[in-house]
Amino acid sequence: MRITADEQRGSISSQIAMVALLLMAVGAVFVFSASANVTQDIELRRFYEYTSLRQSLFFVVAVVVMWVISCIDYRRLSMSRGLLKSPATYLLGLSTVLLIVVLIPRFGAEINYARRWLRIPVGPVHVSFQPSELAKWVLIIFLAGVGQRYSEKLRSFFGGFVPACLVIGLVAGLILVEDFGTAALVVVLSFLMLIIAGVRWLYILPPLPFAAGAFTAAILSSPERMQRILAFLHPDKWTDSINYQPSQSLIALGSGGMLGKGLGMGICKYGHLPEDTTDFIFAIIGEELGFVGTASVILLFIVFVWLGVIVVVRCRDPFGQLLASGIVLAIAIQAALNIAVVTVVLPTKGIPLPFVSAGGTSLLLSAAAVGVLMNIAKKSDAEVTGTEQ
């Protein structure tokens, strides 16, 4: 049977959508499960106050966002018409302003001793928005545009590489004030994208001492971060305080065994494991679905990365290649870091599991990024088959 051009064009895009939908569905189910409270009565009139119901709403909106973005030509974000005519430049400016605003006590909301959120009143409720998440994705788009438009200048140390590093340093520095994990992720992603864009490896070495110095200073200046490092180095100590969450995470994963206790049957979510709906949702999956459940989630991320690599390889547009690479790297590295934290391979960081952890900003922006990746897949296959209008 002959496959039509339309079927070829939609195949990879549809597969990416299917994997992302499965991960988001897993997230909605387990956020609902982790939010269970035997003493809590749910009032539907105040549904937005409940994490489980709020995440279900975000899931529906994320599906719509992903579909809408997948229908918009990703090349509108490029810098083919110049730096000042690209939406990415103005989005980066907006992100920078929001990163500054969130640090102002009057505007930024402090949650868990960190000022990372803006609380925006929408009718009777307040919607929380995390500017660092927006900045992360916008910087990926911006660097992809720079890599496509100014690839020759990037090969010059002072002519292109240093200005790019200054932009990265500004964004990462503002994030670093309150969010160490996301700042480190942004720096790693940015340098990887610059390398993919053609920057010489030797250029990466001079900024490393400055980056290392900045992150070291950020750790030493924060007693909480120092405690996390010490707790990670001594996992058998302070299990009733700073090491309580990592130790409970391992208990949840270990108690799940091979097949788990059953969906909704976990007990660690009843006050034993803090952040069970956000950073440590993977531990709840392990407790209730066991090794089979956690392995399935990891497999879904591997499939997503594999499909993303196929999109990168097939894409003939340099901007599309760089943008797809950045999206795939962001999802893959973030997932790997979160799982490493939950399994206590790395110190505790505030990095959510993409598509799965509770949080509207992360879910909606990740869904939008997947929509962009789907559009790149559609356009690339259309070019290969010669069917693009």
What does this structure look like?
It is built from 14 helices and three strands. The protein is mostly helical. Helix 3 (87-101) runs antiparallel to helix 4 (131-149) and helix 4 runs parallel beside helix 7. The longest helix has 34 residues, at 281-314. The two termini are 25 Å apart. The mean pLDDT is 86.
Helix proportion range: 55-70%
Biggest sheet, in brief? 3 strands, antiparallel
Mean pLDDT, to the nearest integer, reads 86
Order of helices and strands: HHHEEEHHHHHHHHHHH
The geometry reads as globular
Residue ranges: pLDDT <50 for 5 or more in a row? Answer: none
Distance between the termini: 25 Å
- What is the helix tally? 14
Question: Strand order, biggest sheet?
Answer: 1-2-3
Structural class: mainly alpha
What Rg is obtained from the alpha carbons, in whole angstroms?
21 Å
Q: How many structural domains in the coordinates?
A: 1
Number of strands: 3
In terms of DSSP E residues, the strand content is under 5%
What brief labels describe this structure?
3 strands; 65% helix; three-stranded antiparallel beta sheet; 389 residues; 14 helices; single chain; mainly alpha
Reconstruct the topology from this structure.
Blueprint (H helix, E strand, L loop, with lengths): L4 H30 L16 H20 L16 H15 L6 E4 L2 E9 L2 E5 L1 H19 L1 H4 L2 H20 L3 H18 L3 H4 L2 H14 L2 H11 L10 H13 L24 H34 L3 H25 L17 H26 L4
Antiparallel strand pairs: 1-2, 2-3
Helix pairs in contact: 1-2, 1-12, 1-14, 2-14, 3-4, 3-6, 4-6, 4-7, 4-13, 6-7, 6-9, 7-13, 11-12, 12-13, 12-14, 13-14
